Amino acid sequence: MAVYRIRKDSLFLTELPMYGEKRLGVIKENKFLMKKPIGINVSFGVINFTNFSFGKQNGKQTVYTLGKKHYESTDWLGNVRVTYTDKKSWQQSKFALNLSSSQDYYPFGAVMEGRKYNLTAYRYAFNTQERVPELYENHYTALYWEYDGRIGHRWNPDPVFYPWQSRYVCFNNNPTIFVDLLGLFGTREEARQYKKEHGLKGRVKLNQDGTYSIDNRKTHTSTFRDDEFGIQTAVLVEAKRPDSKSITPWELGVEWLTGTGARSREFEAGDYITELYRQHDFVSQTKQEIAQKIRESAGQLPIKDVAKYDLNGIEGVGKYIKDYSTLATGGKTGNLIYTFLGSHVLMYEVTSVDIENRTAVVTFTVHNTSTMQSATRLPVIGYKEWYRNSIGKVINKLFKSGPGSETEQWIEWTETITY
After folding, report:
1. Cα 204 to chain center, whole Å?
2. Same domain flag for 349 and 373
3. Which of 239, 362, 370, 379 is nearest to 317 (CA)?
4. Interval 157-216: pLDDT, tens
5. Are residues 197 and 267 in the same domain?
6. Nearest to 221 by CA among 237, 235, 231, 232
7. Beta-bridge partner residues of 108
8. Could you give the strand order of the β-sheet that contains 264-267, starting from the edge strand earlier in sequence?
């Protein structure tokens, strides 16, 4: 992958991107010939290291020219703020970087006047996208969309339509929090809406960068929104975090409270969190309910439902007090994972029934989101819809990223029960 130009019937390599975990910068060649003379230029007390030779290969001397590599420095949103080359100068008894470009942005990507330098030296800028100086310095482009940073809107309609926002909107109208690096769903609601409208199966998954995708483990596919190509479906590649095996509820709480570690955790049979969860009376009661449903249906499938662990209302006050008082005793008077999860649902599905031996195989799944609203929720009043849609929403917006921001947990296991 590179940028080429044709000049007088000759093909020249002009730019070669450099990547690590993400794009680091570009190498600017602007010439077809690779060999240049070696030398050190000295002028006006400044030493410029122009060329550097690092040996011979196949009997020919290999030459590397300093100044071709342009490294980018980005902010927390991935916006390119400063670029500098690998060519350094010796000034005032120390090495100094050679700045090649710099810029500051208004929230939607327009470059600030008086706070920019040599913008044409680097093609990538706001939201990591390419700048189009032929149109305007605040115009950015990708393969299937054009974006104007002055007005904060696309030129062309988004291929993915949501009833609650314009098809010309970018970053969910909140560019200080959201980015469109991959075009993933910006909110859980967007992903759920698309999943419902298109009849997709799978989980709405919170990704490490705060965006969402729809992951189907049975088909091993992941569906996400790409602003260049629209809705995309790719192969789902998962790697379980090794520390999920032994992590405790205390450590989960610290991870959420400090904003460090995984945004999404998945636990399976044998993991400490899963086995602790299974010890609660709530699971035993749910198994009894499943057994009763199997008997009533004479073992006929499908049998699929949810059981609610609910702290809502007056009847939930007792659970609330017990769960939260467990913190003071270090888990000795209750189950800490239930204290961490709070109100949640336990989904179950009977996958097979052995009528002769009166046994059934059941898959259990828990999904929970941890937010500052849920952690600070008061008994009774904190579970009212008006509270969640007013005070609760304000609280969550204040903790949209960083410490106390949303994380999620999945707990899943399969076991055989008797009925």
Report:
1. 12
2. yes
3. 379
4. 876 666 677 888 887 787 876 665 444 566 777 788 878 877 888 888 887 767 788 888
5. no
6. 235
7. none
8. 264-267, 407-418, 359-370, 344-354, 303-309
pTM beyond 0.70:
no
Return the HEC string of the chain.
CCEEEEECCEEEEEEEEEECCCEEEEEECCCCCCCCCCCCEEECCEEECCEEEEEEECCEEEEEECCCEEEEEECCCCCEEEEEEEEEEEECCEEEEEEEEEEEECCCCCEEEEEEECHHHCCECHHHCEECCCCCCCEEEECCEEEECCCCEECCCCCCCECCECCCECHHHCCCCCCCCCCCECCHHHHHHHHHHCCCCCEEEECCCCCEEEEECCCCEEEEEECCCEEEEEECCCCCCHHHHCCCHHHHHHHHHHCCCCCEEEECCCCHHHHHHHCCHHHHHHHHHHHHHHHHCCCCCCEEEEEEECCCCHHHHHHHHHHHHHHHHCCCCCCHHHHHHCCEEEEEEEEEEECCCCEEEEEEEEEEEECHHHHCCCCCHHHCHHHHHCHHHHHHHHCCCCCCCCEEEEEEEEEEEEC
Neighbours of 239 (CB within 10 A): 5
CB hemisphere CA count around 184 (13 angstroms): 21
pLDDT of residue 44: 35
Residues 203 and 302 in one domain: no
Distance from the Cα of residue 394 to its chain's centroid: 22
Positions in the chain whose pLDDT score sits under 50: 33-57, 181-183
Count the Cβ atoms, other than its own, within 10 Å of residue 225: 25
Tell me what pLDDT residue 60 has: 56
Range of the domain at 368: 242-418
Q: Is residue 145 part of a domain?
A: no
